[in-house]
From TrEMBL:
Its EC number is 4.2.3.4. GO terms for molecular function: 3-dehydroquinate synthase activity; metal ion binding; nucleotide binding. It holds the Pfam family DHQ_synthase. This is 3-dehydroquinate synthase. SUPFAM superfamilies: Dehydroquinate synthase-like. Its cofactor is Zn(2+); NAD(+); Co(2+). It comes from Tenacibaculum caenipelagi. Residues 62-174 form the 3-dehydroquinate synthase N-terminal domain. The keyword Ubl conjugation does not apply.
Amino acid sequence: MTTINATTYSIHFDEKAYHELASLVSKNNYSSIFVLVDDNTLEHCYPRFMQLFATDKPIEVIQIEAGEIHKNIETCMGVWNVMTELGADRKSLLITLGGGVITDLGGFVASTFKRGIDFVNIPTTLLSMVDASVGGKTGVDLGVLKNQIGVFANPEMIIIDAEYLHTVSTREIRSGTAEIIKYGMTHDIELFNEIRGNDQVNIVDLIHRSIEIKNEVVLEDPKEQGVRKVLNWGHTIGHGVESYFLESPEKEAITHGEAIAIGMVCEAYLSSKILDFPKKKVLEIKEAIINIYGKVAINEDDIQPIIALMKHDKKNINGEINFVLLNDYEDFKINCKASEDLIQESIAFYNS
């Protein structure tokens, strides 16, 4: 699989990527190496990593608890303290081995520890491979508000090893597929067509193409001042839904991808009302999403709290909720506004 080059780092694939990592470690002569894992990746991914990564340097493993609920500043403080106790300095390297929580949080920890040390991302879930680990965004949640605290910081490299996907559940694979669908609707409709029309997709090819798309967008707009906002298609409503289900004790939490899938249906509806996105395609999207993800019940009483959470979205300006909407597949418009009534209507459409 061909290496993809970003501004200051490269995204390497398969087992040869570990040779690139060994070369990086040798070239930079790091004083110490730390590997950040969670409960799951320590058991299921770390043995493969150690089998393939050849180095004489001693490695210290730092383990955190798995799950979005632990993606917060308190966890960061724990990691910073452990690194300090183990003698980490500015010439240390942090390797993140895990899903989006690990790569987001680990990148933030590294980029702020002693004002910044090098880090390498090794994503182990589909979601983190095609989205979270790529593009230089790091950060943690503030309560249930997604990614409110963070910085832009690039890793030294990213390793994409699809073998790690054998360690995650079918539900997690579906979750990551939502981000691939996002790239399909906004940039390459063949991705969406292949997913909705085929139970046996070549996931490695889909991963590579998705990263290509994200990398092209980030190269054009690294700090999300303009066109990079397209990567939030489905996320404005999706993040509100995800946060609401996370904070509500009577609700079962849903995955990031399941929430973004709901967001894409709702925002497709907004696209048809505000732009010229064909209603036929709105129904097409809804049918495909429900076929893949099933239906999540959103009660009428849930809608206002979801909208309240959406008002904290990072794209908002002057208190107005901003959307990415579609004129058509592969034809998007950023910085769109929608009334609360229309947002309510879009969620009711998903629920109907």
